[in-house]
């Protein structure tokens, strides 16, 4: 008898995207509502702003350049704060001093897959940036997060000092873009159904149930 593979949920996400943090919470709520399903969640990289320098950019300047003025930015993020509160996320945007280039964060997430620690690392990165206002461009921040998540932090420290898997990470981002992903979060369920945006938990749960009911080739996967 052949074992049936779990339903895959491939989440295309960026660490500096607040809606991706909200989407993670909504996915978790959806999964709790369908405990009968065997689901495997995997995280894939995306960059909302690949033009950011490796050392990041002053947050106030970044917001001013993006929105035209800080008042418009504040109004935009007020809506996100409200959405975050409904999901138990205490966004502290005022504590963020630097908008980071997230390539190194995505390398860390990629490495964490080997130890099945992706979800833990993604959660800690979101918490560090959006709740604690930490600088995600600093290697020591990422090394500490890797240690707290249970990774081999000494190895992570060594790898971050090199360009290891930088090309692969950029290629994965390009793959997502070439497949039609233009915004995040994007949930690809069972390699067949796409939910674009931080959908409500009931919508995600319904898509998971539909995927289970219509499976003809269990184990369909998104390219790694």
UniProtKB/TrEMBL annotation:
Domain of life: Bacteria
UniProt cross-references to CDD domains, sorted A to Z: DsbA_FrnE (cd03024)
InterPro entries: DSBA-like_thioredoxin_dom, Thioredoxin-like_sf
Origin species: Roseibium salinum
PANTHER family in alphabetical order: GLUTATHIONE S-TRANSFERASE KAPPA, THIOREDOXIN SUPERFAMILY PROTEIN
All copies of domain DSBA-like thioredoxin, residue ranges: 8-208
Pfam family, one: DSBA
Protein name listed in UniProt: DsbA family oxidoreductase
């Amino acid at each position: 008898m052949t074992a049936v593979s779990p339903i895959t949920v491939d989440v295309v996400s960026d660490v500096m995207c607040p809606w991706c943090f909200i989407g993670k919470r909504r996915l978790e709520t959806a999964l709790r509502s369908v405990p009968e399903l065997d689901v495997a969640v995997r995280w894939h990289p995306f960059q909302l702003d690949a033009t950011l320098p490796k050392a990041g950019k002053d947050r106030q300047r970044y917001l001013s350049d993006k929105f035209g003025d800080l008042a418009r930015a504040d109004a935009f993020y007020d809506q996100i704060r409200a959405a975050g509160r409904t999901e138990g996320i205490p966004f502290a945007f005022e504590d963020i001093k630097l908008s980071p280039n997230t390539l190194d964060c995505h390398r860390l997430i990629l490495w964490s897959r080997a130890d099945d620690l992706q979800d833990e690392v993604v959660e800690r990165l979101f918490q560090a940036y959006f709740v604690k206002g930490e600088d995600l461009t600093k290697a020591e921040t990422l090394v500490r997060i890797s240690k707290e998540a249970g990774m081999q932090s000494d190895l992570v420290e060594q790898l971050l000092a090199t360009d290891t898997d930088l090309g692969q990470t950029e290629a994965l981002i390009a793959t997502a873009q070439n497949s039609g992903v233009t915004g995040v979060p994007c949930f690809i369920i069972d390699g067949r159904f796409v939910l674009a945006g931080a959908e409500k938990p009931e919508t995600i749960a319904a898509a998971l149930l539909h995927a289970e009911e219509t499976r003809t080739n269990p184990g369909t996967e998104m390219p790694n």
